[in-house]
Amino acid sequence: MLLLLPPSEGKAVPRRGRPLDLDALAHPELTATRAAVLDALIGLCREDPAGAVDVLGLGARGAEEVARNAALRAQPTAPASRIYTGVLYDHLDVEGLPAGAKRRASRRVLVFSALWGVLRLADRIPSYRLSAGARLPGLATPAAVWAPVLREALPADELCVDLRSGSYRSLWRPEAAPLVGVDVVREQAGRRTVVSHMAKATRGAVARALLVDDGRPPRTAEAVASRIEAAGWTVELGDADRAGRATLTVVERG
């Protein structure tokens, strides 16, 4: 079983640490594509800082983020598990996992990124800003850039629990293995709504529960639903489509 996570929009900025080494990241077959995307991002931020704020969809602190992007190859790095912050990662709490769950996280968690393609939690990266919705000058969309190379790099036959948001789901999907997408809704007075903040928190907590569970990894969507239900959530599993992809809805009541 693999757990597919998005990156976080907000990121910690390490004060010290060795600079980026692309060759040291997991899945070295992605190095050439990573270098091309990295160079395009650095070039944009160095040559057109004002335009970069718009292309990258940055806000009031855009100039600071652009300056950091422009120097990414020299910026200090830290493990991805410490760089990515925010609601999902707060509830996943990688650093607070028991030892066995940490080992499982190192094997099972894949973090998808418009800049790096895919990362393991131990991969050392600098703080950066590039979303899956941003198209860099001279490159295709992130999905078009990454989908072909990730298809070659990642396993096609292992059950995946997809905790990513929509734009990151487009970067890669397994071709031959079951995929369980996790959606979250709030039910109140018989009415269901989708709340983004709550969904991130629940997805992080679900990922943590699946890692803490020390039983044999589930191999079917039904087994994933049973594990999540056993951890205390109300779940509804939809029928799988022809490609073996099913949606599991976690229902929060309140």
Summarize this, please?
The chain has helices at residues 31-47, 49-55, 62-70, 80-83, 87-92, 99-108, 142-153, 166-169, 196-212, 221-230, and strands spanning 2-5, 78-79, 109-113, 117-119, 124-125, 160-162, 179-188, 191-193, 234-237, 245-253. The chain is α/β, with parallel strands linked by helices and 254 residues long.
Describe this structure in words.
By secondary structure, this protein is of the alpha/beta class. It has one domain (2-253). Helices cover 38% and strands 18% of the residues. The protein has 10 helices and 10 strands. Helix 8 links the parallel strand 6 and strand 7. Helix 1 (31-47) crosses helix 2, helix 1 (31-47) packs across helix 3 and helix 2 packs across helix 3 (62-70). The longest helix has 17 residues, at 31-47. InterPro entries: YaaA. It comes from Patulibacter brassicae. Pfam families: H2O2_YaaD.
Number of helices, counting only DSSP H or I runs of 4 residues or more: 10
Could you give the order of the helices and strands?
Answer: EHHHEHHHEEEHEHEEHHEE
Number of E-state strands = 10
The global form is globular
- Helical content (DSSP H or I, runs of 4+): 25-40%
* Low-confidence regions: none
- The helix/strand class is alpha/beta
Strand percentage: 15-25%
Oligomer: single chain
Using only CA atoms, what is the Rg? Answer: 18 Å
Profile the largest sheet. 8 strands, mixed
Mean pLDDT: 94
